Amino acid sequence: MPFTKTPSLIARLQGELPSSGQLPATIQTAGCRWFAFRYFEEAHRRFGDRFTVYPIYMPPLVFLSDPEDIRAVLTADPAVLHPGAGSKILTPLIGKRSFMLLEEEEHRTSRRAITPAFHQRVIREHAAMLQEMVAREVAAWPLDTALALHPRLRSLTLRVILKTIFGEQAQTLDELHAELMSMLTITTSFLLQEPNLRYLPGWRPTWRTFIQRRTQADMLIYGLMSWRRAERGCEQTGLLDMLLDGEQADGAPMTDREIRDNLMSMILAGHETTTGELAWAFQLLAHHQPVQDKLLEEIDAGTDEEYLTATVNETMRRRPVFLFVIPREVIAPVEIGGRTYRPPVHLAGCTYLMHHNPELYPRPYEFRPERFIDETQQPRTWLPWGGGRKHCLGRHFALLEVKTILREVLATRRVLAASAQVEAPRWRSAILVPGKGGRVVLRRRR
Ligand code: HEM
After folding, report:
1. Are 152 and 408 in contact (CB under 8 A)?
2. CB under 8 Å, gap of 24 or more: what pairs does 372-376 form?
């Protein structure tokens, strides 16, 4: 349901929430949508570590960048701050029964059924499959011409997550891959955020095509579930098996709908984020050749990955896919940083602004992986994976994939800039990616 604002509610909220300036909701929404980093930096410069945005159709969002405020949001009682509500814009993609949208005990139980498939030990078993797929794909990328990496990375990471989830023997993954590539183009559209637009004549065909693609993808997913059920008795291979055995909070088995929604959640979370972060990494390396030189030196020596790890961390700091962690919905009055927040407000820890606080990260606008080698980062102020009950459960998988792809590309190629500056960001559902497709030039170096 779209959020309905009444003048009295807005007056009450404006009286008690941190400032948002005088801009109308349409301009605030457009500012966040089209100039994300700049809008947040400017709001922070004017209003400090707490400010409010009033998006059209959505409840007001208070952004907090003081480390103590962020910690308070992430560790709050889940009955007081609901984290599932913050992912609602993804409902058309992942479905209402996705564990990502559930709260409290329901969220905990469903998440518990998924987590073992992404433990570090289990992830290591996928390393050989990943390496082989990456090597095959990267070998086909053209050299010496401007190349949009984002779509290529997306295709690759989607293939990887499908194999990880459904197992290497699963048939129809190519068909599912094609349907999902097409279905998920909706993530760049305003239609996900603004349900009221979906039935207007100019937008209706886009929405209808999305629904058709989703139906096709769902049929393939249900087909894979039936195939796997028929194979039961074989050794468990991955997430699909774990979900087929999964339980709801009341101990009943998960329904097919719940399994589908959870599979779709992991497919979505498991490739769009990694793709975006890799696209940013290639952008930043292309525009910072001395950093790339150091990384190439380490990769050529083949002895260590200290600088690679630091480069990945610095990419997630300087150009994160998540500008802020998943917003939490205020269910009951809660005091944070000396201020009381009440329903229907949502609170979001703005990790991007915290990671650019010069007291925590000196010279924050420089791309300088050394800061993750020479300086010690505190867990309290370094939160690229969020925290609390919602912290990223795919982080080991993400790191393995990001490092494997960077290493494979840079082992034989240098990445050169294809634009005067690092590309401006563009939203894809809840994340930010390079706005022009992450264009670079790849040149053979040995
Ligand atoms: C570089 C890539 C990635 C980044 C930067 C990232 C970051 C994040 C962040 C910031 C959150 C929100 C945490 C919060 O609000 O407290 C999150 C949640 C989540 N991530 Fe990741 N992530 C990445 C890759 C992945 C991958 C590869 C997977 C799956 C294989 C994954 C699965 C999830 C899931 C399922 C959630 C929601 C958890 C829940 O609702 O309980 N992520 N991630």
Report:
1. no
2. 372/309, 372/310, 372/313, 372/314, 373/306, 373/307, 373/310
Q: Which of 280, 392, 396, 404 to mutate to test the pocket of ligand 1 (most atoms within 8 A of CB)?
A: 392
In order of 46, 74, 104, 342, 379, the CA distances from 67 in angstroms are 19, 11, 24, 21, 10
d(CA 23, CA 159): 43
202-206, 229-233, 278-282: lowest mean pLDDT where? 229-233
Which residue has better confidence, 231 or 130?
130
Residues 86, 348 contacting (CB under 8 angstroms): yes
pLDDT, tens digit, for every residue of 370-399? 999 988 888 899 999 999 999 999 999 999
Residues 6 or more apart whose Cβ sits within 8 Å of residue 21: 43, 46, 47
CA separation for the pair 417, 311 (Å, rounded): 17
Question: CB of 117 within 8 A of CB of 239?
Answer: yes
The CA 421 to ligand 1 mean position distance, Å, reads 28
Token digits of residue 71: 């910690």
180 Cα: distance to centroid of ligand 1 (angstroms):
19
Residue 233, pLDDT score: 62
Task: Quote the pLDDT of residue 203.
Answer: 87
Closest Cα to atom 31, ligand 1: which residue?
394
Residue-wise pLDDT for 108-118, tens only, equals 999 998 988 88
Cα of 416 to ligand 1 centre, how many Å?
A: 29
Q: Which of 51, 278, 36, 245 is nearest to 155 (CA)?
A: 278
Give the pLDDT of residue 235.
62
Please check whether residue 242 is in contact with residue 117, taking contact to mean a CB–CB distance below 8 angstroms: yes
Atom of ligand 1 nearest to the CA of 387: 16
> What sign has the CA pseudo-torsion 337, 333, 431, 105?
positive
In the chain, domain spans: 7-444
What class, spelled out in words, does domain 7-444 have in CATH? mainly alpha
- Ligand 1 site-directed mutation target among 99, 273, 282, 406, most atoms within 8 Å of CB: 273
Least confident of 18-32, 137-151, 231-245: 231-245
